[in-house]
Amino acid sequence: MKTAICYYSRHHGNTRKVLTAMAGEGNVDLIDVTACQAVCLEDYDCVGFASGIYGFEFQKAVLNAARQYLPQGKPVFFVYTYGGAKGHGAQSIAEIAREKGCPVLGEFSCKGYDTFGPFKLVGGIAKGHPNERDLEQARRFYRELKNTYERGAKT
Ligand SMILES: Cc1cc2nc3c(=O)[nH]c(=O)nc-3n(C[C@H](O)[C@H](O)[C@H](O)COP(=O)(O)O)c2cc1C
């Protein structure tokens, strides 16, 4: 399964750490949506969208990338990290996928170190996350997703 994951990760690189763990399972291209002008997702079997949660939502650049570049009917999955209140989580990105008739293979989320605003004063929340346990769960999520996809592709 050839996979692209379009992501935004800025605050502490938490989401990027999770994606790097997933990519270690093989054949994954990580695409920073702020670092490329145009993205071609046609040639991938499956596309992930990933972000830290900012103001209860996926970061806008990831949503825009999905609107602009996600091909109709392409299998997708979602990954996000959050400090404490995941809010709507992957809701907005799932809506875009639904409009484009894209099957959703799964969703993974975990906590990510957060020093936004007042949290900085107390040394941040979700300290140490993603930790090794989070990363192992991320690897397992991706392995299972790959197995699900490959079983489906054979039938
Ligand atoms: C401007 C800003 C807004 C945030 N809003 C939320 C939020 O609404 N809910 C939440 O649980 N975490 C929130 N966080 C914390 C981030 O979601 C968390 O630290 C995440 O792991 C950041 O991912 P990144 O390091 O990959 O960018 C916010 C952080 C920043 C900097």
Helix/strand/pairing category: alpha/beta
User: What kind of sheet is the major sheet?
Assistant: 6 strands, mixed
Strand content: 15-25%
Rg of Cα set: 15 Å
The SSE string, one letter per element, is EHEEEHEHEH
Which hetero compounds are present in the coordinates? flavin mononucleotide
What proportion of the residues is helical, as a percent range?
A: 25-40%
The number of distinct helices, counting runs of at least 4 residues, comes to 4
Q: What are the low-pLDDT stretches, counting only 5+ consecutive residues below 50?
A: none
Mean pLDDT: 95
How many β-strand runs? Answer: 6
Measure the end-to-end span.
15 Å
Q: Quick one: overall form?
A: globular
At a glance:
It is built from four helices and six strands, in the order βαβββαβαβα. With 155 residues, it is an alpha/beta fold. Strands 1, 2, 3, 4, 5 and 6 form a six-stranded mixed sheet that branches.
Provide a descriptive summary of the structure in words.
The protein is of the alpha/beta class and 155 residues long. 34% of the residues lie in helices and 24% in strands. The protein contains four helices and six strands. It has helices spanning 14-23, 60-69, 91-99, 132-154; strands at 3-8, 28-32, 46-54, 57-58, 76-82, 104-111. Strands 1, 2, 3, 4, 5 and 6 form a six-stranded mixed β-sheet that branches. Strand 1, helix 1 (14-23) and strand 2 (28-32) form a beta-alpha-beta unit. Helix 1 (14-23) crosses helix 4 (132-154) and helix 2 (60-69) runs parallel beside helix 3 (91-99). The chain is globular, with a radius of gyration of 15 Å. Bound molecules: flavin mononucleotide. Flavin mononucleotide (FMN) binds at residues 9-16, 52-56, 81-87, 112-114, 116.
